[in-house]
Amino acid sequence: MTRLENTLLDEFQYTSQDLLIRNKSILDSMTKMIESSAKISRTLVKAVTQCGCIKINGEKQEIPEHADSLEEIQAHMKTHLTGSLCENCRDLLEKDIGRNLFYLAAMCNILDLNLYDIILKELKRLKLLGKYSLR
Predict the structure, then answer these.
(1) Measured CA angle at 117 (ends 116, 119), to 5 deg
(2) 32 pairs with which residues across the strands?
(3) 83: left (phi over 0), alpha (psi -120 to 50) or beta
(4) How many domains does the chain have?
(5) In this predicted structure, which of 4-8, 31-35, 55-59, 89-93 has the lowest mean pLDDT?
(6) Which of 21, 72, 103, 113 is the most buried (most CB within 10 A)?
């Protein structure tokens, strides 16, 4: 990440610290983050069931028997998603994801963790382990 990205991420994290008044308890922040995650799922479901801009066609992932590499397997994996988000659904999801990030930053503040450092460590781990970092 560039210095600008680091500065923006730090600014976001510390702004969330300044704005967090009522939910300063780790318990409040944990439950608010869980609630915001559920809101993301609910907004996504509404994009399917009420708006219809996207469709979810879930089915078993088929892995070809002749697949010799992780790249071949990855090429056959599906997202189960068709269509694309309309502007309204995109705006709502961005808002919900932003709220989730706010509570993640709040938890980091309470636990004296730096979100930028966490992202750097995870990126380094992902690059080091590559596709073998799958959990």
Answers:
(1) 65
(2) none
(3) left
(4) 1
(5) 4-8
(6) 103
d(CA 29, CA 22): 10
Q: What does pTM read for this prediction?
A: 0.80
Domain range for 52: 3-129
Q: What CATH number is attached to the domain comprising 83?
A: 1.10.287
DSSP state for residue 51 in the 8-state scheme: I
Q: For residue 134, tell me if it sits in a domain.
A: no
Q: Is the pLDDT of residue 59 over 90?
A: no
> In this structure, is residue 33 part of a structural domain?
yes
Instruction: Judge whether 110 lies within some domain.
Output: yes
The two three-digit tokens of residue 31, written as one number: 């439950």
Residue 62 lies in a domain: yes
